[in-house]
User: Fold this.
Amino acid sequence: WLGIPIFLVIMWAVYYLSVTTVGTWMTDWTNDSFVGGLQEMVQGWMEKGGANPVLTDCIVNGIIGGVGTIIGFVPQMFLLFLLLSILEDCGYMVRIAFVMDRVFRRFGLSGKSFIPLLISSGCGVPGIMASKTIENDNDRRLTIMTTTWVPCGAKLPVIALMGAVMMQHVAGMSSSWLAPGMYAMGVAAVLVAAIILKKTKPFHGEAAPFVMELPQYHFPQPKTVLLHTWERTKAFMIKAGTVLFLACLVMWFLSSYGVADGHFGLVDSPDSLLAAIGNVVRWIFVPLGFGGANGGWQAAAASLSGFSAKESIVGTMGVLANVAEDSVEEAGAVSAAVAGWFPSAAAALSFLIFNLLDSPCIAAISVMSRELNSKKWFWFAILFQNVFAYVIALCVYQYGIWITQGVFGAGTVVALAFTAIILYGLFRKDPYKGKTFESVK
Assistant:
């Protein structure tokens, strides 16, 4: 019975070292000194060389400002991957799967569903592919739909940035709980979804037995640990140099160009193409707290960019923060500029939760489509992920402002209604208990 409390303490220590203390010191230096200094240096070179101001802005604010904001979190990610690799190589993480098997079986899943969740803490793509080991088709579909709710390495920069944003709103608040809290929230969301969906005919069925050979505990091999850490970090940096590089360029173009006085060209940020798109979409997020007139379109645009890659959220915020501040020196302090987009810490937390639970990146979506091998199940998975994320984020924000500010309105009533529906799904009697249905493979 001590297995789960020990696991929670270990995971808190891992994220405390990688996100809150040691990792943050390295990331702060990277953002404030390295990236900010690089922007100043490149801007000086280009201005002295007589480069076109548009090209200078593109490279300094679009590429270095966007990609540099993401690269700034590499030290945190490297330390996180290092600590997780040590836990994996010494034989601890395999045993956690058996500990969690007791918990998961109470909710209708087996420890085999926890293995993809562990893998997804690094990347959702291999996590989804790991669901192939689950014999029960209904459990496999459920695992594929929910495994990306566990924060992957790409979501770590978003967690770190939004933790800094919340600290701007709540003086003296510690962010050491945020990263392990989001990890626990992801697992809790999986269990809640499992309870609700396992009481429906398409997902009903007994959990498969979990059998796996346990390796002996041993000291981790430095070569193996460093190799795994480097491979994961390198994969992230390759993505930053390809997919995220292109995403930051697109976001810079959309945030810098628009139509003014009947002519298409460079415009101020509030009149840009991205602002136009964000202002149309932001109304969807008003009940979630981050779709207001002040900063709403920026937050909405960042959320939309997350569907290409979750790291793009931070990159987009870096680009928009640079545009809004129009100051190269502030490039490393994105959280100070971003904090103004969210009226409260509850709104910032709602933004974070929505972007952790909604549909994953394009790569994971494509793998999910291939593994489900059904258009019907694929579109159900996409719809379920986004509706679930929206409902949970709405409840978090509405209850947050009710508790902290005493605000009770129509949104709170809607949140109470959603809560009642979720509780009914959790505690209603299973109408298919004891029944067996043929599963189509």
